[in-house]
Structure formats: C-alpha cells, structure tokens
Amino acid sequence: MGQATGSGRFVRIGIAVAALVALVGIGVALATTVGDIAPAPDSNALVVEEPTTRPIDTLEAEPEAAQDDDAEAPTEEAAPPVPTPSTAGALHVEGTQLVDAAGEPVQLRGVSTHGVAWYPQYVNQEFFTELHEVWGANVVRLATYSAEEGGYATETSDRAALNDLVVQGVKYAAAADMYAVVDWHTLSDANPATNQWAAEEFFRMVSGALGDADNVIYEICNEPNGTTTWADIKAYASAIIPLIRANDPDAVIVVGTPTWSQDLAAAAADPLTDANIMYALHFYAATHGDDLRKTLSTAVAGGLPVFVTEFGICEANGAGEIDYASANLWVRLMNELNVSYICWNLSNKDETSALFKPGCAKTSGFALDDLSDEGLWLIDTLKSPGFSREDVALARAEVKPNAAGSEMLVSAEGTLQWTFQVADRWEEDGRTFFRYEMAGSNYGAGVKSWSIDVPFNGEITLEDAWNCEASAKGKNLTLANASHNGKVAAGEFVRDVGFIVSGPADLAVVEY
How would DSSP label each residue in 1-31? Predict the structure, then answer.
C-alpha cells in the first residue's frame, strides 16, 4: 500500500428564481444567490449542504462538470469490452502500451489483495471468478510483503506456503479468465536490495512454476522509498529480471520507481534496456493530485510504459478521507492514456482503503451491503456487470434524516418542489413505522398532474397514504396526485399529502 485513502430521480436543486420569494409565507426562504436554495429560520425546507466528499459520477464529463446536477446522475453507459487471457492471449509491451497477442492495446482494470500472508482467505477460486464475472475485473494482484510481520524475508515466514498460495492464485485467476500480477511488496525495507536474496528465491521459484502461464505479470518491487535511488532499483532489477527470464522469457515485468513508485522521471531518464518492461506509478487520490497526474501524462507522452499497479481513493496511508473528485479525475486520465490500474485492497481491515466493511466475514458472494465506500466507488467505476447501476447509485446515495421532526428538501419534478417531514415514528411488532407529511410548491408553469418516486435505503411496506395515489415495490415508493389535487397553478401549493411506511429502524429516504 502507499506510504506512511424522468420523474422520480432525486437531484439536488440549484435554482435561483426571484418569483420564489412569494413562497415565504409558508416558511421557505429562498436565497437569490445563483445556484443555491437556502432555508430561512424555522423553515420546513431543510436543504442539506453538499458534502465535499459526496460520490459523483463524472468520469466521462469535463472536470468542471463535477458540480453539475446532471453529472451526478448514474449513467447507463455499458462498460467497455474487457480483454482477458482467452481473448487477448499473452501480453507484451509495444512503445508505451500494454498490448495483446495481436498487437492491439489493452487496459487491465482490477484489484489487489492485501498481504497474502495476512489475508489468504480471499485467494480462492469462487471469489476470483466473481471478481471477473460480477465485478468486471480482468486482473488481480497478489501482494507478498517482504519485510513486514509474516513477510517472505522474515523469520516468521512460511515461505513454501506463500509460494504455493501465489502460484495457486495465478491459476485461480487463469481459471477465472483474468490476468494476475505477482507482486514483491517492498515497503518498510525501503531499498529492494535489502532483501534481494529473498526476492531472488521467490521469483526463481514462482517463475519456475508459472513459466508456461499466459496470464502472469511480475512486479518485482512494490514501493522503493527513503533514500533509495533509481540507480539502486536498476541494479536490483538487473539481478532479478534474468532469473524470471530464465523461466518465462516473454513475460511482462513491472519495476517500481523511487519515492513509493512516484518518481517516473528518474526511470524515463535512464530506462532499462530489456523488452517487455513497464514502470510502476502508485497514487492515493486524497493525497496525490494534479502534480502527480501531470507526472503520469508527461511520462507517457515521453514514451515510458506505465502501469498503475496500486492506487486508492483515500489518503496515502490507506486511511483518512476519500476524495471522489480527485479519484474520478485519475480514472479519467488513465482511461484517456490507456494506462492499466489496480485498486488497493481486498480485505476487511478497518481502514478506508479496504474494499469490504470491517464486519464482513465473507470470502465470496459479496453484496453491495458488504462493500466499503471505496468498494462501492470501485464497483461503480468498473460499471460492474453483476450489479444494477441503479442499485449501486442507491447504495452510494446520501441518506436523509429519519428522526421524528426531520425536515428535508427532497425533490423537484418539473416545476414542483417537494419538501418532506418525518412527522412521527414508532415501533410495533419488530418493525419501525414512519409517518411522512409532504408539501409541494409550484415555482413555474402550471401543471395538470404530478408524480414522484421516493427511493428508500431498505425494503418498505406501504401502510397508508392520503390525498395521493401511492404504491410501494421493494425499496421504492411511487406517489401521484389524487383526482382533486393534480392541477397546480403557478405559485400555488399542494398541501395535506402524506403516507405511512414501515421497515427497518434505519429506514430513510435517500438521494442520488
């Protein structure tokens, strides 16, 4: 890891219309500043401020569109075709590009294990097949720490077991039609030469077992750091690469770069002369921004083949805050450059960069509820075929307050703006009941009918509704006008409308 993270779709409303000032009589004060609707004191329209780390789907939009309401709506665009060993064959390097057996550029997108000595349970056939078929990944990285507790070069290491697990992991990946990166995870030992003896043993044995595999890529030093120079790394690589080539002459080999695999310029100035070599760049989106993105662009433009073998969307220590905007800009750039990328990490560790929630003990069969915020972001970014885009958007959505008395601006449909209030909640027979009261205000042209879809974060049962037509299915509630209140002229209101639903105690309206 890095050095020491139509009607019915809810959108945030940013409208400044002077005519709305006339609505102050019902307790809603609307700011005239362009782009904001602000509640007056004691208002029943509570506008929740947009959090800076709100998930946004802007990977195909211009960067400045990140604050655009339409840019936040989940797109239905399908994921691009995913090259796999069965379709692309053994990979090699041409120029700056990773290419298939026919010389066509390919992009690998996938996930990294955490240290396999600590989290071996995720290296299993069922899960690797799920990674490909459900998540849409075409590469998995097998991280073998060198110097950390239980690492290959330590006294507590079971080296034979680690070798076997890595080799088996590559075979699981092949059976799942994925590529696999065998990663020698240099970190606290800083200079890969520190434990070069162990690296030589590891790569000699692993490449000997995998020399005939078409799906294997070797990453020979994860994140050289400290005072380690490119000259140090190059000398180490010159010792390790021949050991791999003796068993696997044509394999792609990725070499780490100084400063936790961020100094591409040093490698570009004095690259290795071997064929089928790529250079690692690692980033964590909340720490690394425009400067490192420029480093990537400059290196590729200069002819350096780069592979982002590890990244996270949080801070560089694997924890801390998530920066979705920076993460999306990174993905956009990597897609534009056709640079392959691997997300850190497959574990339930209590840290931001872990893809599973700490309480999740599963080793396969993961549902959206099992995934961390980064996990949900990754599923969304990969446009994972095994998950509904709508369900992913719902899982990532902001949850509205559900305590009695909570008030919220929920939706604007056409010219109608709706506010909801949790008027009451109570427990009965193991379920929680919520009574919502809603009011609509027409700030534009008159309408003859209205309807609104209200997504919740859990399964709901509709118990009652008044002055509207209502139906519930799964997590969604659909409300439409009754016969007497569908026509709403400009400047008029819809009042005395509401409903009662029941569900789990944390049931709440969500916004996406």
Answer: ------TT---------GGGGGGGGGT----
